[in-house]
Design a protein that fits this description.
It is a single chain. This protein has 74 residues and is mainly α. The chain contains two helices and no strands.
């Protein structure tokens, strides 16, 4: 288990491991690698975001919140 998609793909590229990553967010990172859909149906998941107004003063939290909202809107 790794902390992110880029790390998972770097490990898979360097050995015979398989990385399961979302197609939408990893297109450039997967360049030159073999990709295929999962051979089984998978259920959709729900992502919830709870945000306290006081963290709006933190630019990093605002950025992260924007990333999550953008990803979920697609």
């Amino acid at each position: 288990m790794v902390g992110g998609f880029a790390t998972a793909l770097a490990l898979a590229r360097a050995c015979d491991l398989i990385a399961t990553v979302p197609e939408r967010h990893t297109g450039g990172l997967r360049a030159g690698m073999h990709s295929f859909s999962l051979p089984v149906p998978t259920p959709e998941i729900t992502v919830s975001l709870l945000w306290h107004p006081r963290v709006d003063a933190d630019p990093a939290h605002r950025w992260l919140r924007g990333c999550v909202r953008e990803a979920c809107a697609k």
